[in-house]
Amino acid sequence: MKTLVAEVAALGLAVAFTSPISVVTVIVLLGMPSGRRRALAFVCGWLIALAVIGVLMVFVLHGQDFGSRSSSPSRAASALEVLLGSLLLTWGVVAYRRREPSTGSPSTPKWLGRIEGTHWLLAVLVGALMLSYGLSLAAASEILKANVSRLDAGVAVAVFAASSIVTIAAPIVAVLAAPDRSAERLAMWKSWLLGNSRAVVLVVLMIVALFLIVRGIHDLVA
Length: 222
Description:
Number of domains: 1
Order of helices and strands: HHHHHHHHHH
Helix content: over 70%
Structural class: mainly alpha
Number of strands: 0
């Protein structure tokens, strides 16, 4: 169980640190009317999407023989890891090679400005859509293959969810902890994320993708 918790926590942190646009989205939402409510709604949407994956995994897929490497469910889960890893690696390599050097002041994505005139509950949907489903499914695969009890699987899902929101929750914590100084701090974070994080995100994604490929192939041939 300790190994499983460490693996899903690492995958959750991978989600957190490969989601800079999600962090920028939270920062922009905080600057809008009902900003705190919008930002919290975004995080709730993110967590709701993870809860749906967790419920399906714990109450629908739990009990199948994912623990035995020779079983069909386990081999399917390993094959899914290889597929997800291959897709992430291919996309990461292509995107890294095509990236352009940052010139001038980075701009906020235009679609974010359109949210301001909408109801704050729309942020729930945005949060759910911006979750990294590839890495989330990889974490679900690891939990299923561990063949643990429903309670332990639920704990693993909670650990993954908590670690995945480390970065998107940071701007909210900054506003709540020091509201008078938060505007300048968030502006600095936003500028850095828009201008410097693309290459870092792609490298992290490629490392995670390689891990998934190696882990999946190992389980398939073992």
